[in-house]
Amino acid sequence: MRGNRCMLAFVLTTAALLAGCQRNKTADTSEQMPASEQEESFLAGFEAAEDFSVETVYAEKEEYPELAAFLISYYQIPQEYQSETRYYYNYIDLNEDGADELFAFIVGEYTEVPFGNPMLILQKDDAGAFVVVEAFEGVHTPITISENTTNGWHDIIYNEYGMGAEDGYRICHYNPSGGYQTEINELLEDKPMQDGTQILSNNLIDDMDKGNYLTLAPCPEE
């Protein structure tokens, strides 16, 4: 029994000495922050991670005949569908060059796909003609333009579902060799907590009920 006690005392003494050496070694190689400051720093970082800001922006309300004509031509929408096809648009500078890109989203029986509705990102050339930066076959609004950038362009986030695969939130990162729809994109289960601007924020069903929308062609008079 006495031998065991001696052995235990030896082990405890050795551990204490090793711990003291380790503390001294750490103190020699880096400046230590007091425990209270460490806790405050951690909590501040945690709160910062939880604290994010998203500005909500609704679609423009004014008719844009030039855009409507472009969408009719681009999607080859027959005349009988034009007055039933709604369009929404917003401006936002994606690459911070001082010139806004235009997001155009259309809703209608002719263009709808099982996993959403088509959306274009457009710019204007020197002659004032629309140029397609990106064409999405089907997305769900609203669209979030993240404050995060990839290759100089803001990331684009939207809810993806109905494709027969995993549902989630698609983060589109800009790839100079392929645009916004390449293999560097991500699909997350939960919506990423990022600062940004949420565009095309309209409630599409509510808009339909209230007649609060634009159509590619004037509705025929009854």
Structural write-up:
The relative contact order is 0.15. Mean pLDDT is about 85; it is low at about 1-30 and about 40-50. The protein has helices spanning about 1-30, 35-50, 65-75, 80, 205-210, and strands spanning about 55, 85-90, 100-105, 115-125, 130-140, 145-150, 155-160, 170, 185-190, 195-200, 215. The protein has two domains: about 1-50, no CATH class; about 55-215, no CATH class. The longest helix has 28 residues, at about 1-30. The protein contains five helices and eleven strands, in the order H-H-E-H-H-E-E-E-E-E-E-E-E-E-H-E. It has about 220 residues and is of the alpha+beta class. It is globular, with a radius of gyration of 28 Å. The strands form two sheets. Strands 1-10-6-7-8-9 form a six-stranded mixed beta sheet, with no helix packed on it. Strands 5-4-3-2-11 form a five-stranded antiparallel beta sheet, with helices on one face.
How is this fold's topology laid out?
Blueprint (H helix, E strand, L loop, with lengths): L1 H28 L5 H16 L3 E3 L8 H11 L3 H4 L3 E7 L8 E7 L9 E8 L5 E10 L3 E8 L2 E8 L7 E5 L13 E3 L7 E4 L4 H7 L3 E2 L7
Parallel strand pairs: 1-10
Antiparallel strand pairs: 2-3, 2-11, 3-4, 4-5, 6-7, 6-10, 7-8, 8-9
Give me a quick take on this structure.
By secondary structure, the protein is an alpha+beta fold. It has five helices and eleven strands. Helices cover 30% and strands 29% of the residues.
